[in-house]
Amino acid sequence: MQTNLSEQAKSLPRAEEAERILRSCVHCGFCTATCPTYQLLGDELDSPRGRIYLIKQVLEGQPVTAKTQAHLDRCLTCRNCETTCPSGVQYHNLLDIGRAVVEQQVPRPLGQRLLREGLRAVVPRPALFRALTSTAKAFRPLLPQTLQAKLPRHPHPAKPRPQLLHARRVLMLEGCVQPALSPNTNAAAARVLDRLGISVTAAREAGCCGAVDYHLNAQEKGLERARRNIDAWWPAIEAGAEAIVQTASGCGAFVRDYGHLLEDDPAYAEKAARVSTLARDLVEVLRDEPLERLGIHGDRRLAFHCPCTLQHAQKLGGAVEGVLERLGFSLTAVPDSHLCCGSAGTYSLTQPELSFQLRDNKLNALESGNPEVIVTANIGCQTHLDGAGRTPVRHWIELVEEALV
Ligand code: SF4
Ligand code: SF4
């Protein structure tokens, strides 16, 4: 696509990257076929091609309006379009650049500002989030439906974690909301890894991966959190940690991007690149291990919801299904498994209408094979789908851990 960036856009730190991405799009429109917002709304400007065109206009200096912002806000950042695109357009990077420019030019109404600031103030702080979640559970019937649906129905308490007995060590990103909403997930992962001869080292100073701030257009704050995590993990990396394991694919996708996002930071570029090469989703660690040593005979009927951040961002579609089948679980067929469930980080709170439509469509697809339980690999999807009060939704590693002999 021909582009002619404005002088202002040319001065952006990521101007060259934006121009390269814009030029890589040949406007073929294949991506529209798999875009969830285009499927629901049928508006070209709510498709990847339309949004790319809007960002091109913004960067070429044309007027930016609240309507432009609304079309960009409605994007789930699910990256389904990147999987479909035959030209390898790095849509999410262009979207990040475009959203930041629009954010500076279009002031948001007070209600939106308060919601976004509130989310940024609470979600990345695990202790505050846990305290608010406990209070909210006590007042559940008084809360608006969007918030009620975010509270876990029957969270499984965390089982004890194993002692650090093994020479093989990995780090684990504990996450910010997962410890409160699904407290047993990381414990179950540590217990299964222990049975495979791998210990999980704690890095207490590490915190939120930064994705919440970054995707709410507080990009510098998101990068600050990335730098803090790098500092927190570095001593264990130098001591030989094999991997930084994520049990939430949303966090994993962002940690994998640290290297790219910090490539122009002279103090952190090298370390960030190393962290990105060490970042592993839990399934990547498990699939390379001799799983028969676990002695598992999974006899439950499961439907797997593959999060967009696992299949489209980390390109690990089919990996969890493969591990669960090796362990004897039976998996039901899930139509349209490439489509987003509508969770998308904080999207279910900022765009509830579209989010709930996508959730209900996804649950219909997941339940079509009559599974006992739906399993997934990202806390956002887990909470969002479980909040409908239909088939229970859990992290897949909890089912594996429960089946340990
Ligand atoms: S993003 Fe890719 S699939 Fe979509 S219009 Fe551009 S080149 Fe075609
Ligand atoms: S990231 Fe998802 S919602 Fe956004 S344009 Fe691409 S396919 Fe559509």
UniProtKB/TrEMBL annotation:
Task: Please provide the record's keywords in A-Z order.
Answer: 4Fe-4S, Electron transport, Iron, Iron-sulfur, Metal-binding, Repeat, Transport
Read off the InterPro entries from this record.
4Fe4S_Fe-S-bd, 4Fe4S_Fe_S_CS, Cys_rich_dom, Glc_ox_4Fe-4S, Helical_ferredxn
Domain (4Fe-4S ferredoxin-type) spans 16-45, 66-95
- Which protein is depicted? Glycolate oxidase iron-sulfur subunit
- Protein's UniProt keywords contain Membrane: no
Q: What Enzyme Commission number(s) does the record list for this chain?
A: 1.1.99.14
What the entry lists under PROSITE patterns is as follows: 4FE4S_FER_1, 4FE4S_FER_2
Q: What is the annotated signal peptide range for this record?
A: none
Q: Which Pfam families match?
A: CCG, Fer4_8
User: What does the function comment of this entry state?
Assistant: Component of a complex that catalyzes the oxidation of glycolate to glyoxylate.
Q: Which organism is it from?
A: Pseudomonas putida TRO1
Q: Which GO terms describe its molecular function?
A: 4 iron, 4 sulfur cluster binding; glycolate dehydrogenase activity; metal ion binding
UniProt cofactor note: Binds 2 [4Fe-4S] clusters.
Q: Does the keyword Isomerase apply?
A: no
Q: Which cofactor does it need?
A: [4Fe-4S] cluster
Reactions catalysed, semicolon-separated, are: glycolate + A = glyoxylate + AH2; (R)-lactate + A = pyruvate + AH2
Give the source's domain of life in one word.
Bacteria
